[in-house]
Amino acid sequence: MILPRLLAAAGLLLLVACSANPLGLRPGATSVLQTFADPTPSEAVDMALDKHDADRRYRGTLILAKQRFAGDPLYLDLFARGITDADPGVRAASARALGLHGRADHAPLLIARLTDEDPSVREEAARALQRLHTPEAVEPLMNAMRRDREDETPVRVQAALALGQYAQARVVEQLIAAMADESLAVNASALSSLRTLTGQDFGYDRAEWQRWYNATDTLFAARVAYLYPAFSRRKRWYEYIPLIPPPPNEPTGLPVGVNPDFTAGK
Q1: C-alpha–C-alpha distance, residues 15 and 13, integer Å
Q2: Residues 146-175: what's their mean pLDDT?
Q3: CA atoms of 25 and 17, how far apart (whole Å)
Q4: Which residues does residue 87 pair with via DSSP β-bridges, in sequence order?
Q5: What percent of the chain has pLDDT over 90?
Q6: Residue 175 in 3-state DSSP?
Q7: 3-class DSSP state for residue 197?
Q8: What does the alpha-carbon distance between residue 28 and residue 40 come to, in Å, rounded to a whole number?
Q9: Predicted pLDDT at 129
Q10: Minimal CA–CA distance to 166: which of 201, 137, 186?
Q11: Which is nearest to 126 in space by CA: 188, 117, 42, 112?
Q12: Of 21, 23, 41, 204, which residue is 20 to 30 A from 266 by alpha carbon distance?
């Protein structure tokens, strides 16, 4: 089964390369791989700064966000400006970029986006705050996890995961309350954070969590280090083809701004 697929993929690449660019692929390419390559960093910057085309700003920001060099102050300033862009796609892309490359002092920009009018921006802001640590994020994240304050399930899911880095009694209390959320995805995220913060595991039994919470004076005695979630997946069949890039998997780690002993921002 794999060989016919490989041959079909090779045929498709050859067809596209030899066509009159019907898909609007990159002009000036001298090979099939260049045809599908991203714009250069300078081209991406030009796109991200295009005042007249929000789609180009969005695509340029996303391209820059996945570059290793995007933690340079020049790019961080671009992302910081983009997070207040009039277009929600640009704001969401900028939030993602700040989560990937930002410093702890960029967290207030993301906190402000937790109440953005666009749910995709709120989701990206909550996800980015899993990687940037500041105690000022606790209250806004708890609000973003509450069903009576946030209608969108993906936002509540990401907020619940972000709260796993804050060893505060009120956080544990709100995570236990989130076990009653109608969304199983929110329940699972709250459970993950409770396990990290307390070292305990009572599954989805909210009553048992509450009994333990009421009975203990050492909520965080068995706490383990919080590591932000990271994208990871297995190779797809076509990614075994030579010269095809592998999945964009990334390692997990401690949030920026948290001490290695994970005591900052209790």
Answers
A1: 5
A2: 98
A3: 9
A4: none
A5: 71
A6: helix
A7: helix
A8: 13
A9: 98
A10: 137
A11: 112
A12: 204
Contact 94/58 with Cβ under 8 angstroms? no
Tell whether the model's pLDDT for residue 26 goes beyond 90.
Answer: no
| Nearest to 113, CA basis, from 101, 97, 259 | 97
pLDDT per position as a tens digit, 176-205: 999 999 999 999 999 999 999 999 999 999
In terms of Cβ atoms closer than 10 Å to its own Cβ (0-12, 13-18, 19+), residue 214 is exposed
Question: In this structure, what DSSP letter does residue 106 have?
Answer: G
Q: If you count them, how many residues does the chain have?
A: 266
pLDDT tens profile 53-79: 999 999 999 999 999 999 999 999 999
What is the dihedral angle through the alpha carbons of 70, 63, 244, 18, rounded to the nearest 10 degrees?
Answer: -140
Q: Look up tokens 């989701």; give the residue.
A: 123
Q: Which residue has the tokens 């796109």?
A: 47
Only one residue has tokens 């979630």, namely 229
Residue 83 has pLDDT above 70, yes or no: yes
The pair of structure tokens assigned to 130 is 């899993």
* Backbone φ, ψ for residue 244 (5° rounding): -80, 130
At residue 7, the pLDDT reads 46
Supply 245's token pair.
């890039």
